[in-house]
Specification:
Blueprint lengths: L25 H31 L3 H9 L1 H26 L3 H22 L7 H28 L16
Length: about 170
């Protein structure tokens, strides 16, 4: 019987799944959360100053009254989700891998920042349904930003090449 080097007495190494945080880059996520917060503040301020302030006048009571109305709350929710999408896009674009996971982690960071701001106390009371809805919307908004970053990366040629997949173009 001849010796076969491919066979050995030791069993093959077990297949181990990758962990949830394997491949995560924290700097882009932290930068994405900062960009999310800044983008949300800029979007809300720009929206109010461009569209609402002219109709209501410049009174401080009008400002608080608008943002406590159902229209103001929904606008705030949409603009906050857009800010989270922007932060998720940035984090995923900078990470260059696991784009949706990086975007979703920006959404988790957004929830944490929102809870910190809420715990610090604010002058206005927001309904609990709004807090719950904004927390539920944060992770999908960040993941959507990560998905958009992945599409952008692939559209600009930064993604995988079609040659590596066995596909060929026309010609």
């Amino acid at each position: 019987m001849q010796y076969d080097p491919r066979q050995s007495s030791s069993p093959p190494s077990p297949i181990e799944p990758t962990g949830f945080f394997t491949g995560i880059q924290w700097r882009p996520i932290v930068a994405g959360v900062v960009i999310d917060t800044i983008a949300t503040i800029v979007l809300v301020t720009a929206y109010y100053s461009l569209f609402v302030a002219h109709e209501l006048g410049g009174a401080e009571d009008a400002f608080a009254e608008y943002w406590n109305s159902s229209e103001g709350l929904l606008t705030s929710l949409l603009l906050g989700s857009l800010g989270t999408m922007i932060g998720g896009f940035y984090a995923a674009y900078k990470a260059k891998t696991l784009e949706m996971k990086h975007g979703a982690l920006v959404g988790i960071g957004s929830i944490i920042i929102g809870l910190v701001f809420q715990a610090m106390g604010s002058e206005r009371e927001v309904p609990e349904w709004f807090l719950a809805l904004s927390m539920v919307a944060a992770i999908p908004a960040g993941a959507l930003g990560g998905f958009c970053a992945e599409i952008f990366k692939n559209a600009t040629g930064g993604g995988r090449s079609s040659q590596g997949l066995g596909l060929s173009g026309p010609g």
